[in-house]
Design a protein that fits this description.
The protein is built from 12 helices and no strands. Helix 6 (72-78) runs antiparallel to helix 7 and helix 7 runs parallel beside helix 8. It is an all-alpha fold. The longest helix has 96 residues, at 125-220. 73% of the residues lie in helices and 0% in strands.
């Protein structure tokens, strides 16, 4: 392995370059003759940066005993490494302070030249454990804070999207209101035309009945007897013909008005169906349907000039 070869040959720069890669960090977890790379580096008095890089790549290595039963802290204390290395190893696994190696030595048994190193080794293990627990607790709190901040940011983004959708919906409803109002007017006009159609139909039936009754009276009247003089017969015939022609014209006029109202009703129903289909579409169809809405007033204008049944 590259990492073991670099440590054995004490090529520390190359070892640090290897540890900077994903493959190098995986190598830091592989043992070699019961020793991990961290044990080998402490035993060979590796530079502080190399040991810290190995510890960062595999923090659990501080809690693994080597081939002589010693933890990396034993080897670092024995080789009198820097206080920063000793403190980092203690924080990674404080219980190693109370563990003996195969020679029955504790890390505290090895003499140190540096006062900070001696102070770190002779500090009670419980204090180190408490500090580590506090640090781990604060790290967990920081991670939770970070997660909460990310959630808050996501919620803010979601809220902005909801607000934008609400604004678009409000604009759409404002654009839809005139079309709905126009449809209500069309429906009202349609109802009025239906009432007019019923009135015209009723008037038409009344006139037909009246004409039929008059014809029966003329046919049964004694005024048309053969004893009446010729001039009176001609006058009565002319009056009857004139009356019948007037009735015929009125009848044709009623039929024409009825057909026109039916045509208007069919046209309005067609327009209303188109508007209902268009109103169920997206906002893109709103601009297309506006042309269809503009045609409705023309129909209403045309029908408004027609004569009502009362005028007939």
């Amino acid at each position: 392995f590259l990492i073991f070869q670099s440590i054995i040959q004490m090529e520390w720069a190359e070892a640090e370059v290897t540890l900077a890669t994903e493959a190098g960090r995986e190598m830091a977890r592989d043992p070699f003759k019961e020793d991990l790379p961290l044990h080998m580096a402490c035993e060979r008095k590796a530079p502080e940066s190399t040991i810290l890089a190995l510890l960062e790549a595999n923090r659990d290595a501080a809690a693994v005993p080597g081939r002589y039963g010693g933890f990396p802290l034993h080897l670092a204390a024995q080789q009198k490494l820097s206080p920063k290395v000793l403190v980092s190893l203690i924080r990674a696994f404080p219980e190693a302070l109370d563990q003996e190696d195969d020679a029955k030595h504790l890390p505290r048994d090895y003499s140190q030249k540096n006062d900070l190193s001696r102070e770190a080794l002779h500090r009670p293990t419980a204090c180190w454990i408490e500090d580590v627990e506090k640090e781990e607790y604060m790290e967990r709190v920081d991670r939770k804070k970070l997660l909460l901040q990310e959630k808050i940011q996501k919620l803010r983004v979601a809220l902005q999207k909801v607000n934008r959708r609400r604004d678009r919906l409000h604009v759409f409803m404002e654009a839809l209101e005139p079309r709905l109002q126009s449809q209500r007017h069309v429906l009202e006009r349609l109802a009025q035309l239906e009432v007019q159609l019923d009135q015209v139909h009723e008037t038409h039936q009344t006139h037909i009945h009246a004409v039929t009754e008059r014809i029966k009276k003329f046919s049964a009247s004694d005024e048309f007897s053969y004893e009446t003089d010729e001039e009176e017969i001609r006058m009565r015939s002319l009056m009857r013909r004139t009356y019948m022609q007037g009735v015929q014209r009125q009848y044709e006029k009623l039929v024409g008005r009825t057909d026109a109202i039916r045509h208007d009703l069919q046209h309005l129903r067609t327009e209303l169906a188109k508007r209902r289909v268009q109103s169920s579409g997206t906002s893109t169809s709103t601009s297309t349907s506006s042309e269809g809405d503009n045609s409705t007033p023309d129909v209403l204008t045309e029908t408004s000039h027609e004569e009502t049944p009362s005028q007939l």
